[in-house]
Amino acid sequence: MSLASRSLPRFLFTGKALQVLLHLPDFARLYWRLFRDSRVSLLPKALLVMSLAYLVWPFDVIPDFLPVIGEMDDLSVVVGGLWAFVRLCPPAVVREHVMTIADGKHAHG
């Protein structure tokens, strides 16, 4: 069952949110490795940079001074950009980096 078919509060309290948080360093490694990989084209890399730059850009679609909703647009742009970045990278390259990261974790843990 996907997150889209369930409510967010239920997702947050099932332990799956904790799993995502525990894997954040692995996601960061994956994004960094894909960003530096020459087999990944310029388009996904530009999308990643623009998505992250949106966080510090002083102009927002929805101003941050609006409680909750102001931060939600930032979050949705960044999460959508991160998702699109991985989707636009060659699948074989993504798999290769995921396996390398996983092998490194098993070797050290």
Overview of the structural elements:
There is one protein chain. The protein has helices at residues 8-12, 16-22, 24-36, 42-56, 69-88, 91-108. With 109 residues, it is mainly α. It has one domain (23-108). The longest helix has 20 residues, at 69-88.
Topology (SSEs and partners):
Layout lengths: L7 H5 L3 H7 L1 H13 L5 H15 L12 H20 L2 H18 L1
Q: Any descriptors?
A:
109 residues, 72% helix, 6 helices, flat
Backbone structural class = mainly alpha
Beta fraction: under 5%
> Given the structure, what is the number of helices?
6
Number of strands: 0
Terminal-residue CA separation = 30 Å
Average pLDDT figure: 83
Helix-strand string: HHHHHH
The rounded Rg comes to: 16 Å
Uncertain spans, ≥5 residues at pLDDT below 50? Answer: 1-5
Supply the number of structural domains: 1
What would you call the shape? flat
Major pleated sheet = none
Query: What helical percentage do the residues reach?
Result: over 70%
